[in-house]
């Protein structure tokens, strides 16, 4: 009996991969696909059985836009749109639906002014709406006093779950290997990195860590901790008083209300689509949580803010959420991503801290992280995303 219950040592696979990617969310899946396309023998490890709803990439929809204040995000989005279109062709599925994005914000505020200037500088097709013509273009929305409004006409919706499945399928069709339901429990850095899961041991010449909310749990094995905050997002859907009022079919756009009140985070919404008669409207922040204890976080302060916003600005919605789902953001202090090599181990690449706005960048992030993993010079300037910027925060736990 003792012999039967004794644990067998985990077997080391004889295969040496060019690259092992940990985490099959949108960033890891896109990275793995880019590597496989570049003839790299690639293993993608995922702790949960796919598909799952325990990280940050699940759910049916995400916003895609070029509407950013910073030039570097706009430049990356130019290429990301092209790569999404390429993915649609390769997978033979529709992943993007153009709806436009309405941005409302304090007309003379710093953020809104910077956004307007960036849109103009990059010649992004934008309609600037005057207060008096607003309701004619956007019925059933109340523009707050003092707010300006613009529309990014090429923005829209990405079909997130469908996109994730498509990228993983493409990765496998290029010879990539996915092992899901395998949690990584140890990482040994070296010229060949050794990665141990709860059921096997694997070796790779390089390693990409794209573990979303679990980034720091894994980085601990490499002696690094980043200043990341994991928050639970209450994903709220609101019932239309008259079904279809805010629907994709009625050409209702996605929207962002910048800084609805001083000190508050943005509120954003997507036209009703995935659940007929329900519109998704969310607060762009949540309360801190441990990633494995997400459902124990029951704070509803964000929902109170949303109820006030819906009552004031979206009169065609019942101001009580009809459905609340859960998701997580992994937030950096400056809300910019981490895209970098490990400061000590050059063959360990980190993609983390996507701060609630990373999905739309998936294909370009996949390309950049794969370039780092292959030892190539990245095709965009990655200086805004370096670990070094956290010098006073990032801790070595070696
Ligand atoms: C409610 C919500 C709305 C959003 N809206 C938008 C939007 O409109 N537009 C936009 O661009 N972005 C949006 N985002 C952000 C975007 O979805 C995220 O930035 C993106 O999904 C992050 O992907 P990821 O691959 O880094 O993380 P994840 O999707 O969390 O993937 C990480 C994966 O790593 C796995 N993993 C972790 N640890 C281990 C381990 N030890 N072993 C094996 N596997 C492991 C996890 O299980 C997980 O599957 C939104 C996010 C949320 C939550
Ligand atoms: O990234 C996005 O576009 C969305 C909407 C604004 C806030 C966060 N996610």
UniProtKB/TrEMBL annotation:
Gene3D superfamilies associated with the record: D-Amino Acid Oxidase, subunit A, domain 2, FAD/NAD(P)-binding domain
A single BP term in Gene Ontology: L-lysine catabolic process to acetyl-CoA via L-pipecolate
Residue stretches making up the FAD dependent oxidoreductase domain: 18-372
Principal EC category: oxidoreductase
Cellular component terms (Gene Ontology): peroxisome
Keywords: FAD, Flavoprotein, Oxidoreductase
Annotated catalysed reactions: L-pipecolate + O2 = L-1-piperideine-6-carboxylate + H2O2 + H(+); sarcosine + O2 + H2O = formaldehyde + glycine + H2O2
Cofactor(s) the protein requires to work: FAD
EC number: 1.5.3.1, 1.5.3.7
GO molecular function, one term: sarcosine oxidase activity
Taxonomic superkingdom: Eukaryota
InterPro entries documented for this protein: FAD-dep_OxRdtase (IPR006076), FAD/NAD-bd_sf (IPR036188), MTOX (IPR045170)
Any Pfam family hit: DAO
Purpose of the protein: Metabolizes sarcosine, L-pipecolic acid and L-proline.
Family as reported in the entry's similarity comment: Belongs to the MSOX/MTOX family.
Stored NCBIfam families: PRK11259.1, soxA_mon
Protein name in UniProt: Peroxisomal sarcosine oxidase
Naturally occurring in which organism (per UniProt): Sinocyclocheilus rhinocerous
Gene: pipox
């Amino acid at each position: 009996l003792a012999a039967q219950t004794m644990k067998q040592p985990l077997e080391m696979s004889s295969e040496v991969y060019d690259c092992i990617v940990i985490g099959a969310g949108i960033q890891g899946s896109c990275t793995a696909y880019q590597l496989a396309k570049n003839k790299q023998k690639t293993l993608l490890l995922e702790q949960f059985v796919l598909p799952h709803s325990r990280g940050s990439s699940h759910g049916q929809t995400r916003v895609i836009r070029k509407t950013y204040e910073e030039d570097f995000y706009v430049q990356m989005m130019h290429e990301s749109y092209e790569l999404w279109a390429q993915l649609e062709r390769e997978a033979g599925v529709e992943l993007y639906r153009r709806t436009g994005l309405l941005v409302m914000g304090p007309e003379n505020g710093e953020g809104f002014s910077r956004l307007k200037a960036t849109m103009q500088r990059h010649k992004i097709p934008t309609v600037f709406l005057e207060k008096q013509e607003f309701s004619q273009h956007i019925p059933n929305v109340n523009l707050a006093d003092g707010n300006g409004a613009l529309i990014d006409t090429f923005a829209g919706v990405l079909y997130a779950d469908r996109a994730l499945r498509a990228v993983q399928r493409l990765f496998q069709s290029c010879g990539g290997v996915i092992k899901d339901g395998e949690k990584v429990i140890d990482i040994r850095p070296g010229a060949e990195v050794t990665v141990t899961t709860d059921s096997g041991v694997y070796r790779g010449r390089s390693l990409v860590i794209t573990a979303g909310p679990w980034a720091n749990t894994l980085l601990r094995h490499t002696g690094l901790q980043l200043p990341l905050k994991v928050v639970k997002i209450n994903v709220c859907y609101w019932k239309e008083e008259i079904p279809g009022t805010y629907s994709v079919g009625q050409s209702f756009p996605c929207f962002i209300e910048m800084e609805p009140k001083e000190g508050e985070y943005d509120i954003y919404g997507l036209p009703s689509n995935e659940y007929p008669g329900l519109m998704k409207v969310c607060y762009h922040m949540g309360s801190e949580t441990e990633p494995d204890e997400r459902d124990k976080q029951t704070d509803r302060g964000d929902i109170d803010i949303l109820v006030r916003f819906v009552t004031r600005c979206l009169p065609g919605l019942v101001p009580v959420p009809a459905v609340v789902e859960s998701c997580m953001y992994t937030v950096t202090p400056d809300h910019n991503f981490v895209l970098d090599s490990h400061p000590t181990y050059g063959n360990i690449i980190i993609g983390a801290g996507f701060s609630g706005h990373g999905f739309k960048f998936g294909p370009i992030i996949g390309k950049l992280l794969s370039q780092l993993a292959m030892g190539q010079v990245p095709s965009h300037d990655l200086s805004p995303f370096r670990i070094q910027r956290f010098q006073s925060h990032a801790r070595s736990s070696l």
